[in-house]
Task: inverse folding
């Protein structure tokens, strides 16, 4: 006979509630769900050991075309905080939140950034297909890839710190200190690359990426990036778009061309073959790499992308 079973049941109940009352609000790590790997990493940078993160779309995953699993429904239902990108990136999130009965706190990491509008032709060609536009494809003309500009990552990190602090005020100072330290690393990185991009000529500033995921980065460093696929990987590039891009690459003698970790490389490889331009490396657009890859966290992702773009651009 165990000790517990010898204690009268009424007393046992009493002991249990006493334990619940005296335990700190979040003695165990706070269960947090992030919609994709980059956000998951940012929450980890800010939350440290106080959080236990689950990223719905994992390394090298494509959040544009993601389909939540029954396991995701369970994970979210057990979370205290949901961190999403916003800007209509996670078209599947509302339905998932509803299915899981999620009642926790939410942080929209991009809140407060200057949203970038999609070019008109992008919207027409890639986002709605004119007359047969449906809600699923609609992005309200906004580009969701704000995390690819280091300055926006600073906004993301501060939003996450505020969200965690509201939920767990006891550790608010620690969250803000972690965020501040991380922001300094981002600023150092930006300060390192900004002058090198500034030194490029107009010709060198051009490059081709697989889908249009680097608009904010291009805006930040004054680059001209073209992509056969639009903002959303769900829409296929039309043969006419690809032919137009190939003509442009030849005419403008663009030599910097990149594949992506989340997209099928075949289209870019086809363009490379037809133009004779060698791909200048792989960019990590919408997801981290696996832990043993080139971009296992957001800081190394930003560094890798800036470095890869710059090296290829300097050579053209
Ligand atoms: Zn994307």
Result:
């Amino acid at each position: 006979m165990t000790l517990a079973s010898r204690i009268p049941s009424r007393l046992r109940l009493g002991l249990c509630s006493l334990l619940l009352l005296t335990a700190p609000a979040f003695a165990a790590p706070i269960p947090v769900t992030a919609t994709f790997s980059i956000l998951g990493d940012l929450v980890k940078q800010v939350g440290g050991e106080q959080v236990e993160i689950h990223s719905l779309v994992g390394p090298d995953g494509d959040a544009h075309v993601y389909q939540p699993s029954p396991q995701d429904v369970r994970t979210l239902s057990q979370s205290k905080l949901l961190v999403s990108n916003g800007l209509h990136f996670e078209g599947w999130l509302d339905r998932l939140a509803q299915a899981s009965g999620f009642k926790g706190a939410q942080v929209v990491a991009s809140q407060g950034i200057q949203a970038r509008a999609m070019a008109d032709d992008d919207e027409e060609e890639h986002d709605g297909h004119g007359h047969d536009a449906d809600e699923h494809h609609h992005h309200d003309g906004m580009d969701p890839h704000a995390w690819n500009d280091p300055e926006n990552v600073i906004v993301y990190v501060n939003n996450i710190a505020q969200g965690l602090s509201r939920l767990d005020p006891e550790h608010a100072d620690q969250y803000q200190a972690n965020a501040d330290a991380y922001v300094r690393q981002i600023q150092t990185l930006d300060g390192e690359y900004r002058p090198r991009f500034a030194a490029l000529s107009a010709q060198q500033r051009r490059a081709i990426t697989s889908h249009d995921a680097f608009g904010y980065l291009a805006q930040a460093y004054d680059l001209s990036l073209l992509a056969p696929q639009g903002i959303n990987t769900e829409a296929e590039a039309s043969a006419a778009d690809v032919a137009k891009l190939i003509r442009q690459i030849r005419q403008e003698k663009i030599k910097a061309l990149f594949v992506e970790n989340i997209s099928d490389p075949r289209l870019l490889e086809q363009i490379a073959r037809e133009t004779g331009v060698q791909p200048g490396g792989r960019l990590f657009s919408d997801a981290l790499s696996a832990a043993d890859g080139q971009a296992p966290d957001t800081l190394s992702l930003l560094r890798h992308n800036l470095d890869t773009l710059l090296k290829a651009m300097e050579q053209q």
